[in-house]
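Researcher: I'd like a structural prediction for the single chain below. Treat it as a standalone chain; there are no partners to consider.
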Amino acid sequence: MLLKLTTYQSRCIAPLLRVTALLALLVGAFPGPAAAADEGGLSVPATTLVAHDARVVGDGARTRFVMDLTDTTTFAVFPLDEPDRVVIDLPGVGFALPEGTGHDGKGLVSAFRFGQISAGKSRIVLDVNAPVAIDKSFVLPPADGQSAKLVVDLVPTSRESFASAVRLYRDKEQEAVAASAPPVPPPSDGRLRVVIDPGHGGIDSGAIAKSGTLEKNVVLAFAKTVAKKLEASGRYEVLMTRSDDSFISLGGRVAFARSHHADLFVSIHADSFWGEDVRGATIYTLSDRASDKMAAQIAESENKSDILAGVAVTEDTSEVSDILIDLARRETKNFAVVFARNMIKELKPNVRLFKHAHQQAGFMVLKAPDVPSALVELGYLSNQDDEKLLTSDAWRDKTADAMTRAVDNYFRLRVAQTTTGSIDPATVEQ
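Model: Treating it as a single chain, here is the predicted structure.
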């Protein structure tokens, strides 16, 4: 079991139980300014709408969730399954809640978590421990010196009702996806497109060091440094899946790379793991079979990011499985391995590496069939020495230089080898 999962469970969720719930869908939230996040994990109020307390009261017959706000607001409530939970979406909220808020629940709610889910949009996720329906949901305006209050009442219901509500929500989501903007046209200026993906963000903090350092902040700072260096060369158009404290789903990250015709996708992380002696950079590429148990556990942890953020997890079955697509996937994986080995080669002289620096596992974020993709673990926040490096400006600059050289070398080798045939990962020295 990963330390990251333990941190999530102890800090912001109770065990995720498979139960049932019922939809009560209100009007959608309107956009507003986003809330920033400080190093300790609390969202710093950056809007006029601030949440300063939240609690769960009641019992198994009726459970009420209450959040104190500085003003009234619109919101939407909907259910999700696998695991089952009730989600509340609001416009941008500054969360200034007491330490430990949401760790424990009551009645039908086992725990809850909260944070930014995208630009100008915040989310509360209620983990339920019995089949529930949303009996009432409303906002009380401020009165007699009291704060405005967001109230959601839950009562027991049947699994059949919950299943129907989930189907209704998923149908609405699919309609929204179908109406989304068309892909960006491919570049015509001769530059290569590199997508840098800072992991986690918003409601999903990622790993949390004992000191309170958040993975989502560490990787965003590093990604911005790399992007600046790559852009300075003039050879690349560099795009970032997120440039602020926003949550992006795993599927959304893959879709972003594909719709922007990326030539390379690099996801940046700084994980945690059992055992403080585990440290060093690791480069992961996609495989159905993990290199070892540790690689499998880290991939399993990363693949749960959507669940923890209250995102509906659906498998994309739109790709037709035929020999041409299978060949494209194989070629893409080979390119990814070449990049990984170039990355290790550039990091090795100046950056500490994990004992098995190149690993493979089934990371969902690496599954674009037509975009070479790699996940770079910069180090482990569970190790104090790694944490010092990860938060060091000098280390960040040095490591970003190494990644920039790895990208340059990868594309030089790719161009050279694709003129004569399929790329061969074995030609890259480690």
